[in-house]
Specification:
The structure holds two protein chains of two kinds. By secondary structure, chain A is mainly β. Chain A has helices spanning 59-81, 121-125, 258-261; strands spanning 4-10, 18-21, 27-34, 46-55, 89-95, 103-111, 128-138, 142-143, 154-158, 162-165, 174-185, 191-200, 213-215, 221-222, 226-230, 238-242, 251-257, 273-283, 289-297, 309-310, 314-316, 322-331, 345-353, 360-369, 374-384, 388-394, 400-406, 411-414, 416-418, 432-441, 446-448, 454-465. The chains are: A mainly beta, B mainly beta.
């Protein structure tokens, strides 16, 4: 087949509304009429020029052709004027001659030609416009047009250490757009309020060997006033308890090394990555505690780390198990030769009590990978049962919107998104979703994470390419 | 900006009736800001029109009101405070910024010297008890001569600076100041003011045997009850020696004075009362009043300021195509700098806000939240309404909370505690409101918190103050800019207080 260039009006998840084929029906590319830009690294858009030749059957037909293009220009302006309200966008869909599959990019702006060659004698006679140039600004990457690849929902994902490998191999040479990412309570009795989600791939090691949860009862060192207690509500049935009985100041309460949680030395290197660390913890009523994370290298059993990187203190005041964000770390803590073992990478948890009395209970550290994008979505209220969904949409221009929806596809509330970059790593493999979630309880919407609660996830992704697509699906 | 509009109104003093819509004239250049302390702050634009329209606006448009609204809701209001008109390449300026139509002076009154020969210029001082007293050029502080006094023995001798006898007349309950300069070569010397009836000193100083130059400064306090004649003399202190004296002054001590208000009633009728209390140096009452009259004549009206220089202008700058009119529009909060506060002393912050607003001409109290914080309005010098209000707002409250204030819709002044609410999010280079949609720039308000969604998720704050969370920024100012191709509703900038001067 010949090459194809179209301007298509559409919205995600639906067939085309209308289109113009700029490679047929009198439209054609001028010589060297289109040089697609290869998006530079980090580009949010690219600018290109498309120069067409218009061959009409009459003057009026020529006018109708230009009006068709004008209509698309107007439709792009509609979207620019109010992208929140406008239903559709205009996309540039292209396909090389004999390229198996088309690809498209959203038009962010379109500049009409500033003049036309309509009074050139030869061209007047031939009903012809020899050079019609459009300036366009489009999203930097090419996408797979609708219909999108089918995906398999993931169910019964643990809210405390959620790991689910996608069933699909994600193709493309840049991260795929996650057009829809929906998380909901798995069933009756399950609840959802907030989730943190990230992706693990083979970029740093074997993702199947990744240990996202570090139970603190396994720590090689437990500090002053800190001991292990059996607790079935804890992740592995054990928690650590810090009474502050002899020392309530900010000192080391636990130091946990990588080797404490990963027993197979061949899997140490698979733990590489950058992570948001969540601490699952709670305190007694009216107790106010502040905890902080430090990380560096330190053999298992050392009471405190030497020359660690510090993170800020985080207040811990909830009386239910819930997650507290302690900051971002990287494993290893510095550039390390691959030949060296990471077994002594360690995290230290310091804690202090600022109230008169009370105990701190700590369960585990949850590591959410953020190298290949991550997201945190916060619902304004508790979502109970299986009828509510906490959804994040990623639009063609990469903007995000999030809301609480129902199974009847009704939006019930706006939710909050944090963490700026979101996308599905496309390394020609099936990534692992690493997710932690919690819900709310009580009249104050206090956060709570219950070990037995489960969540489910469904998603729609759209593969992307920087340059050409070929026959990749 | 399809539902955005801007309308020009007559000035408040001229009735404040609507004139005409100006959205098309200013849309492409209109920029305006709102501050958490201040409210509607400043707007600028280029006013499009033909030469006649530009000239009419330049001539008659000072203090006209501009109102911005969206869907009927007022989103900004101010008055034209400054205009820059370019005609044929020449720029003319009219401004209300330094205008004053009620002027008074705060100055220092200094009395004339009672001495006729304090510098020994017209002759040597009068001999006292046989000292050798001569004019001298050997050491001079001012003029051509000083006076040299030589005493050869231990008898108290010297010179009367004030002339023979007790030649100076003073009144009771009036402060006097006596100054001069001496240079003692040897001996110890006393400088004194002495009453004619008892020869007791009303004021004195001494070199205490020290040699070299010395400034003399003495005072007769206002509590002095003696009225009559006195002298001013330098005498040896029972030792031989030589001293030079020059530049002596004896007069009523300086005191603070104020003129009355001089006003231009016609200007006040056009622009409202705009006060200036000019701080001056020492001068006579006549001079102070003259200065007031001069300032009033100079500042009462927004005169046209021509360019500082005139030069050759090429053809490309002449003609209508180069003409333009740039407007600076001030929010009505700026009128709170028109007058000095009559409310003084100590009181509850919110009560003082209400009292000060009661004195304002163009602004009235809107929503005033109670704040019992004890506040002092300093009465040692004149202080404008806006300075008082700004200081009160910046002081906050006893709990350390932020308070905001400003003039908003309807020229109403609101004063209240900042709500501490995360009202906006900043993500991917765009602003979003709480409901998740993109924030329309004309609805953005300062005084709220902005959450940086793209910042790494991590620890919040341990202080209990949401602003201490590294993801959260307090917004002191928002600025909406002109519509662009990329942002047809206009651009939006939010500033933290560190950037707001």
């Amino acid at each position: 087949m010949g090459c194809s260039i179209q301007l298509v009006r559409l919205n995600d998840f639906a067939a085309d509304i209308d289109s113009i084929d700029l490679s047929a029906n009198g439209y054609s590319l001028d010589r060297d009429g289109y040089f697609p830009v290869v998006a530079p690294i980090g580009a949010k858009s690219v600018h290109e020029v498309i120069t067409l030749k218009l061959q009409g059957t009459s003057k009026d037909d020529l006018a109708a052709m230009t009006q068709e293009i004008d209509e698309k220009i107007k439709q792009v302006q509609w979207w620019i004027d109010d992208p929140g309200v406008e239903r559709y966008q205009v996309w540039l869909r292209v396909q090389q001659e004999n390229e198996s599959l088309p690809r498209q990019a959203q038009l962010l702006n379109i500049i009409p030609p500033d003049k036309l060659r309509v009074f050139v004698p030869e061209e007047i006679t031939d009903n012809y416009i020899g050079s019609y140039s459009l300036g366009i600004e489009r999203t930097p990457f090419w996408e797979d047009p609708y219909p999108y690849p089918t995906t398999t929902d993931k169910t019964s994902i643990n809210s405390i250490v959620g790991v689910a490998q996608l069933s699909e191999t994600i193709n493309g040479d840049v991260p795929a757009r996650i057009a829809k990412f929906s998380v909901n309570p798995n069933g009756v009795g399950d609840e959802l309020g907030t989730y943190w989600a990230g992706w693990k791939t083979s970029r740093f090691g074997n993702p199947a060997n990744f240990t996202p949860a570090w139970s603190l009862n396994l720590a090689g060192y437990l500090g002053t006033d800190t001991s292990t207690t059996v607790d079935t509500s804890a992740y592995n049935g054990n928690r650590i308890t810090c009474t502050f009985g002899t020392n309530a100041t900010l000192i080391s309460r636990a130091v946990i090394a990588l080797s404490d949680v990963v027993s197979d030395s061949s899997k140490y290197t698979d733990q590489r990555g950058t992570y948001l660390v969540l601490l699952r913890a709670m305190v007694d009523t009216n107790t106010k505690v502040k905890a902080r994370l430090l990380y560096s290298f330190g053999a298992s059993g050392v009471p405190s780390l030497v020359n660690p990187a510090y993170r800020s203190r985080q207040p811990i005041e909830g009386t239910n198990w819930s997650y507290y964000e302690l900051g971002v770390i990287s494993i290893p803590a510095m550039k390390s030769p691959l030949s060296y073992s990471l077994q002594n990478f360690a995290i230290e948890i310091d804690a202090e009590r600022t109230s008169v009395s009370g105990t701190l209970y700590m369960d585990c550290l949850m590591l959410i990978p953020i190298d290949d994008s991550a997201i945190k979505v916060i619902s304004p209220g508790n979502i109970a049962g299986s009828s509510g969904f906490l959804v994040a949409y990623q639009w063609g221009d990469n903007s995000l919107s999030s809301f609480v929806g129902t199974s009847s596809i009704i939006i019930t509330a706006a939710s909050v998104i944090q963490q700026g970059t979101w996308g599905l790593p496309a390394n020609n493999e099936a990534p692992y979703l690493i997710i932690a979630s919690q819900s709310y309880t009580g009249g104050n919407n206090d956060p709570i994470n219950v070990k037995s609660k489960l969540i489910a996830m469904s998603y729609t992704y759209i593969p992307r390419w920087r340059t050409l697509r070929g026959n990749v699906t | 900006m399809s539902d955005w509009s801007a309308t020009l109104y007559n000035s408040i003093k001229r009735g404040n009736a609507p004139l005409f819509g100006i959205a098309d004239r200013i849309r492409s250049t209109w920029r305006r800001s709102i501050r958490a302390i201040g409210g509607y702050w400043i707007g600028t634009c280029e006013y499009a029109g033909d030469r006649g329209e530009l000239q009419e606006m330049f001539q008659e448009g000072m203090f006209r009101e501009l109102r911005e609204s969206v869907g009927g809701l007022e989103t900004w209001r101010g008055f034209i405070a400054e205009q820059r008109l370019t005609l044929d390449g020449v720029v003319y300026i009219r401004s209300m910024v330094d205008q004053a139509n009620a002027v008074k002076a705060l100055y220092t009154r200094i009395g004339d010297t009672l001495l006729s020969n304090g510098g020994a210029e017209s002759g040597a001082w009068t001999v006292y008890n046989g000292a050798t007293v001569t004019q001298s050029t050997a050491w001079v502080n001012t003029g051509t001569y000083s006076c040299k006094i030589v005493v050869a023995d231990t008898t108290i001798r010297g010179a009367r600076i004030s002339g023979a006898g007790y030649a100076l007349t003073i009144v009771a309950n009036t402060a006097y100041e006596i100054t001069g300069v001496v240079k003692a070569d040897s001996g110890s010397w006393r400088i004194s003011v002495n009453r004619a009836d008892t020869d007791a000193s009303l004021a004195h100083d001494s070199t205490r045997g020290a040699t070299g130059e010395r400034s003399v400064k003495m005072a007769i306090p206002a509590t002095n009850t003696y009225a009559g004649t006195v002298d001013l003399r330098i005498t040896s202190e029972a030792s031989a020696g030589t001293i030079y004296g020059d530049t002596f002054y004896f007069g009523i001590a300086p005191y603070q004075a104020q003129t009355g208000w001089s006003t231009d009633t016609n200007s006040i009728a056009e622009y409202g009362r705009m006060e200036l209390a000019s701080l001056e140096v020492g001068m006579t009452s006549a001079a102070a009043n003259a200065k007031v009259a001069t300032l009033l004549k100079k500042l009462a009206w927004p005169k046209v300021v021509p360019p500082g220089e005139f030069t050759l202008i090429g053809n490309e700058l002449t003609g209508d195509s180069g003409d333009k009119l740039e407007l600076t529009v001030h929010g009505y909060v700026h009128t709170l700098a028109n007058k000095y506060s009559l409310t003084t002393g100590t009181g509850a912050a919110s009560a003082q806000v209400t009292a000060v607003l009661g004195e304002a001409e163009f602004v009235t109290a809107g929503s005033i939240t109670s704040n019992t914080l004890s506040n002092l309005i300093d009465t040692r010098g004149p202080i404008k309404h806006w300075q008082v209000l700004m200081d009160i707002a910046n002081a906050g409250d006893a709990s350390g909370n932020r308070w905001t204030c400003g003039v908003y819709n309807g020229r109403l002044f609101d004063y209240g505690q900042a709500d501490g609410r995360v009202a906006y999010h900043y993500r991917g280079g765009k602003f979003y409101h709480s409901a998740g949609g993109e924030l329309e720039p004309w609805f953005a308000e300062p005084g709220h918190l902005l959450y940086l969604d793209d910042a790494p998720v991590g620890p919040t704050q341990i202080s209990g103050n949401a602003e201490d969370d590294p993801h959260v920024v307090y917004i002191s100012e928002v600025e909406m800019g002109p519509a662009t191709d990329q942002y047809p509703q206009g651009t939006l900038t939010m500033r933290h207080e560190a950037q707001v001067m």
